[in-house]
Design a protein that fits this description.
Blueprint: E1 2-11, E2 14-23, E3 28-32, H1 39-47, E4 54-59, E5 62-63, H2 69-75, E6 76-79, H3 91-96, H4 108-118, H5 134-148, E7 156-160, H6 168-185, E8 188-192, H7 196-202, E9 205-210, E10 213-219, H8 225-232, E11 234-241, E12 244-253, E13 287-288
Parallel strand pairs: 3-8, 3-9, 6-7, 7-8
Antiparallel strand pairs: 1-2, 1-4, 4-5, 9-10, 11-12, 11-13
Amino acid sequence: MLVMNHVRLLMGDLRLGPIHLRLMAGERVAILGPSGAGKSTLLRLMSRELQPSEGEVLLDRRPLSAWSPQALARRRAVLPQQQGVAFGLPVELVVALGRVARQQDPDQSEIVQQALVQAQADHLIGRRFDTLSGGEQARVQLARVLAQAWDEREGLLLVDEPLAALDPGLTLSLMHAISRFAAQRGHALVAVLHDVNLALNHFDRLWMVKDGRLIADCDALPSTQPLLEQLYGTRMRLLQDEHGMAMLPMMTPLQTPLTAPLTAPPTTPVMTPAMTPVMPPPMTPLREVGR
């Protein structure tokens, strides 16, 4: 579906690459890394917001540069980290902006409403965008992306910190909604995340980025603990039960700095019961997994 061949970006002080990646329809990939590592830059290259200095990015075997804006808008939807929107717009119009690539769209009103329902933002219908809280604005922008990809199949969803402004319960609920939406349509989902535990429990693969380099492409499995420790430069404690797993950072720093690309586990996605997204039950004690 999407391929990055020998991609580099050299723009002022910004350096990224070389990147070699292949993404298939229906995959769920989380991009992890420290702040300033290049995660959002990688996503912007995948969306065509940035052009690579070297190499090429292919979507459906065609260079991204060969796609018309209208055709590209139908194949991929992007939720950037920072939003640019006219603040006085009503909520419904903000969501409808995701449909502008369709010249004739008789189902737009219904799709906009259903997208707001899936983003748990339908109670905001009739409100002005500039009167909403940060979390409410994030849900409306998520609905815009869902509306854009609503009637496409095997498309590409690129989201940058989509749940950063939300409380834990709503974060889990919307993560389920996004995953379900993508799975029902066969969309590939790529998300920049700072929450390691969301990545481990709701995604198939992890792309780990540090200092402008892709240092690992691996399955989202408990065996990634050493890679995550090297990525963030700190020890982690792994907790796991039948409902999922959690990596807890510890105060003890790593003694050995990362000097070379990490050796990752196999990249063939393997789903386990612990990786199946589930709504958390009442709190129960977790057991620590031996190192």
